[in-house]
Amino acid sequence: DAGVIQSPRHEVTEMGQEVTLRCKPISGHNSLFWYRQTMMRGLELLIYFNNNVPIDDSGMPEDRFSAKMPNASFSTLKIQPSEPRDSAVYFCASSFRTGIETQYFGPGTRLLVL
Amino acid sequence: AQKITQTQPGMFVQEKEAVTLDCTYDTSDQSYGLFWYKQPSSGEMIFLIYQGSYDEQNATEGRYSLNFQKARKSANLVISASQLGDSAMYFCAMRERGDDKIIFGKGTRLHILP
User: What local confidence, expressed as pLDDT, does residue A1 receive?
Assistant: First the structure.
């Protein structure tokens, strides 16, 4: 089975540009999570969806960040405009929602904003 | 108060020795799950092992075992016969029933010495 798929794996952009990160969860999983990881702040949950509906976006740092999940197999995290402090590794993870299920992580997108 | 505490920021262990990574947790729920993830230098988050709060037996997965002591709220990861490839950051995490989110500890960086 394919795991969580993220694209791009690496992104270098200039301050002020729009950045879109993409995620395809594991087929059949109905919860999807976006995380950000930096040396300073560790692993932070940004937002998560259940059955394509955003449930908790309290971790989204600013209005510059937005996330969508138009269907069960695709989600995007957009940063507009990007800033150097957004440089981080962004992970997408998915899980089943029933019970106490494991989250499986994608390989991450390493974002560098110059 | 932190829900997941990993008291060892870093550890150095000789190859082939057994390793114990400490994790304590805090919850008032009776039903919860405990997880360990490995993050090598390549950056991906790899799920290692899961323990349910009602599981009588300690979870094992190959060289990994979880030393679950419910009364002490402890969920230590034991790696037997360590290998150079075990050098990585290790995260302990918990998910409470009824909460979709996983709470992560700050991690322990393990260095295996040849």
Answer: 64
